[in-house]
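Exercise 3.2. Students should predict the tertiary structure of the chain below and write it as structure tokens, then compare their answer with the key that follows.

Predict this chain's 3D structure.
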Amino acid sequence: MFGRDLLRLARAGFVLAREGAFQAIDPAGLPDGPRLALKLAGLLAKREGGRKLAGALERLGPTYIKLGQFLATRRDLVGVEIATELATLQDRMPPFAEAEARKAVEDALGKPVDAVFDDFGPAIAAASIAQVHRAKLKDGRDVAVKVLRPKVEQRFARDLQTFATVARLAERFDPEARRLRLTAVVDELARSARIEMDLRMEAAAIAEMASNVEDDPGFRVPDVIWPASAKRVLTTEWIDGTPMSDVEAVLAAGHDGPALAITAIQSFLRHAMRDGFFHADMHPGNLFVTTDGTLVAVDFGIMGRLGAKEQRFLAEILWGFIRQDYRRTAEVHFEAGYVPPHHSVADFAQALRAIGTPIRDQSAEDISMARLLSQLFEVTELFDMRTRTELLLLQKTMVVVEGVSRNLDPGFDMWSASEPVVGDWIARNLGPAGRIAQAAEGAGALGRFAAAVPDLLERAETLSREFAEADAERQARREDPSVGDHPWPLWIGAGALVLIALVLLFD
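Answer key:
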């Protein structure tokens, strides 16, 4: 087994070298052996510029594509530059035969395809794990049928075993690999792949999100056809809409680009902040616009979830950035255990101020979330904050959604668009009723709650006064034409960003 793993590793190394994936590595400071290996890899390289690493992973096949997509969410491991390149990886794979798909459906559902579907067409999209067919149910409804690739589980298990071998060898000989816990990273990838290859989990995710967004304006998810779904087959309603990846077609169909841009970012913020459960792969190919202008998301194989702890501390840190109270924002990080106690609260507050202050006087549409997030990642290194993968997934998704919105509206102002959702969240969670309810829930006993009431009431009164003052200030700015309109929406939006990138990034 070990020998076969090494052979597979050697093949992967050859492909990586041929595609020039090792050219970005600086040989300075490396031992003689690795330096010589890099020199030989350079002689093999044939690709000049472009997506070297991403191109190599595409050549290596489905498991490596999935590995690259996974590492795109782990900037703490691979760095911002490599993660940005890996984010360009797409699940573009040749489809497997329709006959194989039909057999897979029959085996999964335990009945002939013709007994379930009135029509079952060829594949319309193929990815590393599954492909999608358009079909029609016996009752006439058009549906999308997602079918796992034959023997995909075995392929992934074999390649993951190779990854595990590499991780163990690296940790044995390299202290940096031990610090990065590469074996744990491979275990995490394996767990993610197992979930993604059980389509019942995806069906459950769709159902959960459908319940969450039932009353949300302008956004919905497809219905799951449960009788025609199983572990290896997922059937959902067919979405008749224009893909968001074709912006020209969306606008040509008469849709309001700026309005859709706002819907996209507000929907994502609701899912992340309100529900703690979000679609973590909201790239343009997974978003459609129906004839009535509704945004519909598809492909729920990758989902993100936020715990109560993150959502609770999110509120305090968000408000701290809106009020420019960097000291309190820093204190909350220490209270939550996000920053190791050997660091200084004052130093951390200074670092947050260095990030937050420069954006105050900029036009909202000139502020790049991606650039700001890069600065925040630099802060994580300075203060030894441990990264949580689901929070990196959140950050990555938010950058993607911002890109979707800017494609629809080049002048998109994310900060103002975020204001209604973030403001509602603040009112419900930081207002008096919300604070007291949280304290009552966390107290665990009447005595402890009673002791906390005076402080709660004082904080609630202060918070209400600050919120009212900020609201009055915003109203005054709107009524006074001589005063710019951007500071309050800007800081609401900046708070939303910092919430995603700071509160939720670190454990």
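Discussion points: DSSP finds 22 helices and ten strands in the chain. The first helix runs from residue 2 to 18.
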